Amino acid sequence: MSHAVAPRDPAEAVGQPKKAATAAWIGSALEYYDFFIYGSAAALIFPKVFFDESDPATATLLSLATFGVAYAARPIGALFLGHFGDRVGRKKIMVFTLILMGLSTFLIGCLPTRAQVGTLAPVLLVACRVLQGISAAGEQASANSMTLEHAPPHRRGFFTSFTLSGTQGGQLIATLVFIPVAALPEDQLLSWGWRVPFWASVAVAVVGYVIRRKLQETPAFAKQAAGAGVVKLPLAVLLREHWADVLRVIGGALIASVSTIFTVWALAYATSDSVGMSRSSMLWVGALANLVALAAIPLWASLSDRIGRRPVFLIGAVGSALAMFGYLWAISTGNYPLTLVLGIVAFGIVYSAANGVWPSFYGEMFSTRVRLSGMAIGTQIGFAVAGFAVTFAAQIAGPDGTDWSSVALFTAALCVPPVITGLSARETHRLPTELLGERAAQGASQPETVTA
């Protein structure tokens, strides 16, 4: 049976790249608003609400581990969502992931606490977190595929970067929401205040659904479905023709460790008794860094359209390894202005080089028939390691959680595989969209497809 999409009106097709980029930005912003409010709560709230307060260090470690649970679920979600995204289209997966994220996040805001139901509370928390992870597994891959396949060939970097600008926007919104929440009196914060940002996900799901339902399927997918047909088993074709690129994406995706260490572990470290910075002041570091990233990401991506994906990605990977030392050192001094400046430089500017270019860099490694599967599976395996990097960092920092230099060294080590990815990958920024991924498939047998 064919999965062909009806031909589009040429007038409607003209504005689709901008519509796709807007849908990716807004949808990703709303999606990652949900995802990152969990990170803030895991660092600041959940150790006291869902875990044993008599042992604060263990409670924090367990809370940060629940943050990583979603990343463990993401590779599993990627297998299923990648498969269906390459079978039925990008749009349907984008709508599904948004609804699932909104629902699971709302349910977290409704959960009973440990004081109310005992150990059942963290069990329910983990279950909801797994659903968040499954949703996130297909979100970026489907949005990236949608924008890349709608974009003009010479501006794929710029248009696909809107997905990552959206994630930074979502993180910014989440941080801004948490600033007044974190400023509440302790009893109000722990009783009802922390729930409000999670309940707001109902509006997230509704707005995102309306936006994404109006978006048309990509011309590349429509042409593939109407012509050769969609791949019957995308995973089999992916591993046969693109296994080396999947490994590259897995290695490259470890760059996300910089984000999780910055967003979660550094926040917990800075607000610990050993450093003593306030929750609100450190949340402002994240907010301003993300505000700068909103401008930096499309600029880096536009640069990659001119000079290539590889050099920009390498700037971000190498620079992030070095910048994390400066940022964590600044926190250790307790000097807030220094922490603010180095946080903006490390996360808002340097990390944005890799973050802004990877959607096009990874997506261009794969052909249309397996692009969503390749991006979803490759990134989510790498992101799974990045998610648990926070838990490892908490252990590496020692019993008192103050060994910041070991955490910085650990983060730098996780930047080595992305550097290898950047050095070994093909440069694709000048290739026509229809030829992307074809070199990897040369000499391979014709994949089994579903045709009319």
TrEMBL record:
Limits of the Major facilitator superfamily (MFS) profile domain: 20-430
Transmembrane segments: 32-51, 57-81, 93-114, 192-211, 249-270, 282-300, 312-330, 336-354, 375-398, 404-425
Keywords assigned by UniProt, alphabetized: Cell membrane, Membrane, Transmembrane, Transmembrane helix, Transport
Annotated localization: Cell membrane
Topological category with respect to the lipid bilayer: Multi-pass membrane protein
Record-linked InterPro entries: MFS_dom (IPR020846), MFS_sugar_transport-like (IPR005828), MFS_trans_sf (IPR036259)
Pfam families registered for this protein in UniProt: Sugar_tr
Protein name as catalogued: MFS transporter
Lineage: Bacteria, Bacillati, Actinomycetota, Actinomycetes, Kitasatosporales
